[in-house]
Design brief:
The complex is a heterotrimer. In chain A, 37% of the residues lie in helices and 25% in strands. Chain A is built from seven helices and ten strands. In chain A, helix 3 packs across helix 4. Chain A is globular, with a radius of gyration of 17 Å. Chain B is mostly beta strands. In chain B, 5% of the residues lie in helices and 54% in strands. Chain B contains two helices and 24 strands. In chain B, the strands form two sheets. In chain B, strands 1, 2, 3, 4, 5, 6, 7, 8, 9, 10, 11, 12, 13 and 14 form a 14-stranded antiparallel beta sheet that branches. Chain B is globular. By secondary structure, chain C is an alpha+beta fold. Chain C has four domains: 212 residues, no CATH class; 168 residues, Beta Barrel (Cathepsin D, subunit A, domain 1); 267 residues, no CATH class; 159 residues, no CATH class. Chain C contains 29 helices and 21 strands. In chain C, strands 1, 3, 4, 5, 6, 7, 8, 9, 11 and 12 form a ten-stranded mixed beta sheet that branches. A nine-stranded mixed beta sheet of chain C has the order 17-18-16-19-15-14-20-13-21. Chain C has a two-stranded antiparallel sheet with strand order 2-10. In chain C, strand 7 and strand 8 form a beta hairpin. The chains are: A alpha/beta, B mainly beta, C alpha+beta. Chains A and C meet through helix 1, helix 2 and helix 3 of A and helix 1, helix 11 and helix 14 of C.
């Protein structure tokens, strides 16, 4: 589960607060949509939760061990991300120089899962995202929808506590977007992870368990 | 009688050189030469061979320690025509040995040509190779002989004080070595020398005391009459007398020629002809190195008396390497029987046939 | 984690095959050159020491005359021999003789003492007798000499030295000598008898008794020796062998290091562009949990994956190069220090590992900055925007001209410093600093030049490309730096070699005044010839005689040449290329000497001072009348007039003649019988001049090879960086394409960019090259080799090589431009 409390962050360039005193939590198995206008700080909030940016104040706890990601150094944050967080991006970000299976194996390698266990887990997951037999293909030969399925598989393969998704369907056509979203939600619920999905899409937001709206005044 | 130098000189020469050497006019050894001292203590470079030979037995620091220091001079007949002062016309070898009871025999050797590391005097006894030296000192109250040598294993600096006059062997120093008249040498002995000085052994310097025997011999003759080797004895007798005996052997071990001289403690000298001297082996020792069989205990009959040799150490075999390998037995023995005393026994020609 | 690293390295190699291979090759080339030079020098040095040991044995001390024409008196030898600390003194008389026209070394030994000190020289009689023949005057030849003379054992031969002759028989061989040693061994007395010296030997080799401390004994004994004798340690000789060629070897190794340095630049270029290209990928990995230190490590690992195989290949290539070189040419890399025999290349594990490590270190060094950049990337931004941010972060623009100026000043100060350990280390440091100055000033010049160009009226595509480079000069710097370094070094070497060659050429004019020269190969000239030359009917207008010997002024330094010449005491400048002031000799008959420039540098003495000469067995004070230029005797030489030499009691045995034939007379025909019967060497000044210059050119052949390698690597670097830059700007170029720029226009823009970067690189390289050339000429040469010469810049050659490099750079950027035009524009735009 994810618990955010008292979070504050100033704007990086313009010298004004982006948000202050944000607090919310996401339970295990709960999927929360984060909506809001452009520039309101959705991505920054996501980056803070992922430890890619450091909040000025407040605390962020992920999972039962309840480490405050705000107070960790960069190396520990990286380790925490590797173990506890799965990412899905709008631009897929599948490594073009690795095969599909290798891409999915990256989090396992980062979590020091023995290489012997990789094969079965990746094959099982590929089947769950509808990419059976795609393991040895190169990303260049995949369509956008397929790439995002690979990204979802990669986000889930190490069974993280938290899934962070930034416009996961933004680059996909509506039909594929629906399929991929359904897949993402289904898998997240299956693994009883928490998920925070940043989106502009009402459709996506509606599919989630709960919607948080970020405004310059705070969460609504 | 120590003829090791014969072997060295001959081995050194290959056939063409020996042919050249044959043309060298060595002076003959004749009776009645009338030796004069100290001049005749010095070198006689015209003759083919010469040696100064000191053997002795020490009583301190360890009783029955044997020592030996020899200088050989050889005129091989090579490079005779060269004007160069470095010409190898006079070559010197030196050999030193030390026998400590219960220990093994130790020895050291040196070789050099005259004017290049080696030197000799023709006026008095003074012969050296590097810092090895035998020389006579007469500047004090009496005359002395000094022996100096150094080696990694042992070094010594001895002073020999005469207690008796010189002993001219044979006929006033003319000493026969065989039945033919050419087989002879000039031979001077000086027995019963009192040894003092110091011995450096195993890193310790010890003052020494004992008795020594000095021989000086020069000749031109080579081994003749089919001789392959010899047995020789020089004994400082316990009663103050001195005894020298030798025999020449042929390949079958038969005696070709023998001689003995005995000067009793009253100074009376008796010479013994070949018929009155007889060598009979009593016990043999086999060398593990060369395989040679040496009669280390010999019964020697001299006139109506006889003596037996008892070596202080069976293994007193020497293998020299410089400049060539020569194998022989030479060591300290006690003699018992009709004569009692200590001295050196030398046996050559037992380790295979000598190369000519 | 290793699995991931391996995947990434493999992926990197797959996607950038050319750049990776080139980097590997560059590292391999640097390592190979360095290692080959090391192996060849090592082998030549070992060969030299071995040959010396074979002849000299392994004594504890050596005693010899300081004056090579003298010797050690017998009395001194015997005195040393009678020291109880001395086990044995092995005297030798060594002399040069000839058989027919073959010159060879004749060594007279004493078999009784030689065995203890010089077992390598012991003879073996064919007859089976163990050395009796030698005392009877037979000689023994090394197998190599028997081969060379085509004589069997048992043959008779006549040895000649000047007018002296010795007919003797070869009784056997010298089994312990090496296949290259041309030696004849005889008994010392027989050598002395025929060739002298009387009552002396050339050298005594001393074995001390066990337990005697050799250094202490030498120190005590040396004080008791007469003036003219020198007691030295055998280590002195080995050290001297190593010392006298050290500067030359260090110089070569520095050049090899330069090749390696350029290799490191190439790795830098490759890895920097690799980091830039993959910034998004690394940002993603960072987001997924790859820690910053592992991101840094990954780049270093990739560099190592380039460096390690490259270095490994380099080591094996170096070994093969060394092997091939020694087989084809011999052990001398052109310095003339070693014989041209074929020394055995013996690779030992430690140096091989060291050169391997050096290759790895070079590639790691090249990757440090890129790795650091990769570590410090802001993940979130890089994931979205890529590498452009980092270029800003390169931050070169803030510093301006101050650092380069300061560095240049430091370099200037360094170049004024004296040598360290007799090596021009400060000057080498100054050269390295100058290169750094060149590289750091590159972005400044690039920005200004490109901004200026961008301000001109140019077609839009070019203008945009130029503006882009001017705003992001880091890549341009990377591309230019390889060129700067390689061209600076090439230009500097061209300048130095040209200055040197001009100076040598000029010098040869001065030192070869006569039309004809006659030499006797280190043995005295026959008296019959010298007498005949004095006759009225000799076809010569003028004859000048010279004798060569040597003196040991300092046992730590090689012996200096003593040249006894028929020269006017009052007018040495007529024959010697005097460089400084010429001082009038004292009015009395005190001897005057004129010293060579190397001698002045090595012994730090000046004209007008007095020099203590160990001459003729005593110490003689000589007045230094002047300094003359000498390029042929690196360890120093001094000239004394034959009159002065005779005055001191020396015997003047001429070895060389300078001859001025009378017009219309056939001097060569007149000399021919002497030349034939005494194995003399007759050459006219033109021949000597040609062969001298050809030796000079040969000695710099290796240098040219190294320069070519450096230039090639520099060009590779340019091509690789430009190509990478094109890829990096793929989006921008694609956008321009989409806006309507044709592929041709894009290609032209890229080529123009490459050419301009090359111009910047070459301009800076040329400036640095001239500065470095000046340091090489005025600092490194005098300090390392004691040669002085004026600076001569061969503008034509320098400009030509600059133009051809520019041409090559345009070709290289054409390669990059082709990549630009082949970019799949639509796809790039779609993926953005």
């Amino acid at each position: 589960m994810l618990t955010v409390s008292g979070l504050a962050k100033r704007h990086a360039k313009a010298d004004r607060p982006l948000f202050s005193d944000l607090g919310f939590s996401v339970a295990n198995g709960e999927i929360v949509a984060l909506v809001g206008e452009s520039g309101v700080g959705k991505s920054t909030l996501l980056n803070c939760i992922a430890g890619l940016e450091t909040a000025d104040r407040g605390s962020i706890h992920i999972g039962p061990r309840a480490l405050d990601i705000v107070r960790l150094d960069e190396a520990t944050r990286a380790a925490l991300r590797a173990r506890s967080i799965g990412f899905v991006f709008q631009a897929f970000h599948v490594l073009p120089t690795l095969t599909v299976a290798q891409n999915i194996a990256v989090p396992l390698l980062l979590c020091d899962v023995p290489v012997g266990e990789h094969g079965p887990r990746i094959r099982a997951l590929l089947a769950r995202v509808g990419l059976t037999g795609f393991g040895d293909r190169w990303p260049a030969s995949l369509s956008g929808g397929e790439l995002q399925r690979v990204a979802i598989a990669r986000a889930l393969v190490h069974q993280p506590l938290l899934i962070l998704a930034d416009e996961p369907t933004g680059n996909l056509d509506p039909r594929t977007a629906d399929e991929v979203l359904a897949l993402l939600l289904e898998r997240v619920r299956e693994q009883q992870a928490s998920a925070l999905i940043v989106t502009h899409s009402r459709h996506v937001a509606r599919s989630c368990d709960r919607t948080l709206t970020l405004t310059p005044e705070g969460l609504r | 009688m120590r003829r090791r130098t014969f072997l060295l000189a001959s081995l050194l020469l290959s056939t063409p050189v020996r042919a050249a050497a044959a043309s060298v006019a060595y002076p003959p050894v004749r009776p009645g030469a009338g030796l004069v001292f100290p001049r005749d203590h010095g070198a006689h470079p015209a003759f083919r061979n010469e040696w100064w030979y000191v053997t002795g037995a020490l009583d301190t620091p360890i009783a029955d320690t044997g020592f030996q220091l020899t200088f050989f001079r050889s005129r091989p007949g090579t490079a005779e025509d060269l004007r160069s002062p470095l010409a190898a016309s006079q070559i010197l070898f030196a050999h030193a040995a030390l026998t400590i009871p219960g220990d093994r025999l130790r020895h050291a050797e040196r070789a050099a040509r005259a004017n290049l590391g080696a030197s000799f005097s023709s006026a008095d006894c003074d012969v050296s190779i590097g810092a090895w030296r035998i020389f006579r000192q007469a500047d004090g109250p009496g005359e002395l002989l000094r022996l100096q040598m150094q080696s990694p294993q042992f070094s010594y600096d001895f002073t020999l004080t005469p207690s008796q006059p010189l002993l001219l062997q044979g006929d006033g120093g003319y000493s026969r070595k065989g039945h033919s008249a050419q087989l002879a040498s000039y031979y001077v002995s000086w027995p019963q020398l009192v040894v003092s000085g110091s011995l450096l052994h195993d890193g310790h310097r010890h003052p020494v005391g004992g008795r020594a025997w000095f021989d000086h011999e020069w000749s031109t003759a080579l081994l003749g009459d089919g001789a392959v080797g010899w047995d020789w004895l020089g004994i400082n007798l316990a009663d103050g007398g001195a005894l020298m005996a030798f025999r020449m052997r042929d390949a079958e071990g038969r005696t070709l020629f023998a001689h003995a001289a005995w000067r009793d403690n009253a100074g009376h000298l008796r010479q013994f002809d070949p018929a009155s001297v007889e060598f009979a082996p009593l016990r043999h020792w086999t060398s593990p190195r060369s395989g040679a069989l040496y009669p280390v205990e010999i019964e020697v009959r001299i006139g109506d008396r006889s003596l037996r040799t008892r070596p202080l150490l069976d293994d007193q075999e020497l293998v020299t390497s410089q400049p060539l390998s020569v194998v022989y037995w030479e060591g300290l023995v006690r003699v018992e029987g009709g004569f009692r005393g200590r001295g050196y026994l030398e046996m050559t020609g037992y380790a295979g046939k000598l190369q000519w | 984690m290793t699995t991931l690293a391996c995947w990434l390295i493999r992926a990197q190699f797959r996607s950038r095959r050319a750049a990776t291979l080139l980097s590997m090759l560059a590292i391999a080339l640097g390592v190979a050159l360095g290692y080959a030079i090391h192996l060849i020098n090592d082998a030549a040095l070992a060969d030299f020491s071995r040959a010396m040991r074979a002849v000299q044995g392994d004594p504890d001390a050596l005693i010899a005359g300081r004056d090579s024409s003298g010797g050690v008196p017998l009395a001194s030898i015997n005195e040393i021999a009678s020291d109880p600390a001395v086990l044995v003194v092995a005297p030798v008389i060594e002399t040069r003789v000839r058989v027919g026209s073959t010159p060879l070394r004749l060594i007279g030994i004493d078999v009784f003492s030689a065995a203890a000190v010089m077992p390598g020289l012991l003879p073996r009689s064919a007859a089976g007798g163990a050395g009796g023949d030698i005392l009877a005057g037979a000689v023994y030849a090394s197998p190599a000499l028997l081969d060379k003379l085509s004589l069997p054992i048992g043959a008779t031969l006549t040895l000649m030295r000047g007018d002296q002759q010795w007919s003797t028989r070869i009784a056997g061989d010298l089994p312990a000598t090496d296949q290259n040693d041309l030696l004849l061994v005889a008994d010392i007395a027989w050598v002395q008898e025929h060739f002298g010296p009387t009552d002396a030997v050339s050298e005594g080799r001393i074995r001390l008794a066990p337990g005697i401390d050799a250094a202490t004994w030498r120190a005590t004994t040396a004080q008791l020796l007469p003036d003219g004798l020198l007691l030295r340690a055998p280590e002195d000789d080995s050290a001297r062998a190593a010392n006298f060629s050290r500067a030359y070897r260090v110089n070569l190794n520095v050049l090899a290091l330069v090749a390696l340095l350029t290799g490191a630049f190439l790795v830098f270029a490759t890895q920097l562009t690799a980091v830039a290209q993959r910034s998004t990928q690394f940002a993603l990995l960072g987001v997924l949990g790859l820690s910053p230190s592992l991101r840094l490590l990954q780049i270093l690992c990739e560099a190592l994956a380039i460096g390690a195989p490259g270095a490994l290949f380099g080591v094996s290539l170096g070994y093969m190069l060394a092997l091939a070189f020694t087989q084809l040419v011999g052990g001398d890399l052109g310095g003339g220090y070693f014989s041209s025999s074929t020394p055995a290349i013996v690779p030992r594990i430690a140096p091989a590992l060291a050169f391997f490590a050096l290759g790895c270190a070079a590639s790691l060094a090249g990757a440090i900055y890129p790795a650091f950049l990769n570590r410090s990337q802001p993940l979130a931004q890089a994931l979205q925007a890529g590498f452009a941010q980092i270029v800003e972060a390169g931050g070169v623009r803030r510093r301006g001209w101050l650092p380069p100026v300061l560095l240049a000043l430091t370099a200037f100060v360094l170049s004024r410093l004296p040598p360290w350990y007799e090596l021009p280390l400060a000057a080498y440091a100054a050269i390295a600093l100058l290169l750094v100055v060149g590289i750091t000033s590159a972005p400044l010049l690039t920005r200004n030049l490109f901004a200026w160009c961008a301000g001109r009226r140019l077609p839009a595509a070019q203008q945009i490309a130029l503006q882009n480079v001017a705003q992001a000069p880091l890549m341009a710097q990377v591309a230019a730096s390889g060129l700067i370094v390689s061209f600076a070094l090439t230009a500097s070497m061209v300048i130095m070699v040209s200055s040197f060659r001009t100076a040598v050429d000029h010098w040869l004019d001065q030192v070869l005044p006569a039309p004809l020269y006659l030499r006797s190969k280190a043995t005295p000239l026959p008296q019959s010839l010298l007498d005949a030359l004095m006759q009225a009917d000799a076809p010569f207008a003028r004859v000048e005689r010279t004798a060569h010997t040597s003196l040991t002024l300092d046992p730590q330094h090689p012996a200096v040449a003593l040249i006894v010449r028929e020269i006017e005491r009052g007018n040495p400048a007529a024959r010697l290329p005097i460089t400084g002031p010429l001082l009038a000799p004292p009015a009395d008959r005190t001897p005057v000497v004129w010293i060579s420039e190397p001698l002045r540098e090595i012994y730090r003495i000046e004209a007008g001072q007095w020099l203590r000469l160990p001459l003729l067995g005593r110490t003689v004070e000589g007045f230094i009348g002047g300094v003359w230029r000498d390029y042929s005797r690196q360890f120093g030489a001094l000239v004394i007039s034959s009159d002065d030499y005779r005055q001191l009691g020396g015997d003047f045995h001429p070895t060389d003649l300078a001859l001025w034939p009378l017009p219309g007379r056939d001097a060569a025909a007149w000399l021919a019988p002497y030349v034939a019967s005494h194995g003399l060497e007759l050459a006219d000044a033109g021949d000597i001049r040609r062969s001298s210059l050809s030796i000079f050119d040969k000695s710099f052949a290796v240098t040219y090879a190294l320069e070519a390698a450096a230039m090639l690597i520099g060009l590779f670097g340019l091509a690789v960086t430009l190509a990478a830059g094109v890829r990096l700007r793929a989006r921008e170029l694609a956008m321009l394409g989409a806006l309507g720029f044709s592929r041709r226009m894009l290609s032209h823009a890229v080529m123009l960019e490459g050419a301009l970067i090359a111009v910047v690189g070459l301009a800076i390289g040329l400036a640095c090259g001239i500065a470095i050339g000046a340091i090489l000429t005025h600092v490194v040469n005098p300090q390392a080799f004691h040669w002085r010469m004026p600076l001569q810049i061969p503008w034509a050659a320098v400009v030509c090589s600059a133009l051809s490099t520019l041409g090559a750079a345009v070709v290289a950027s054409h390669y990059a431009a082709r990549r630009a035009t082949r970019l799949p524009l639509a796809r790039i735009l779609a993926s953005a």
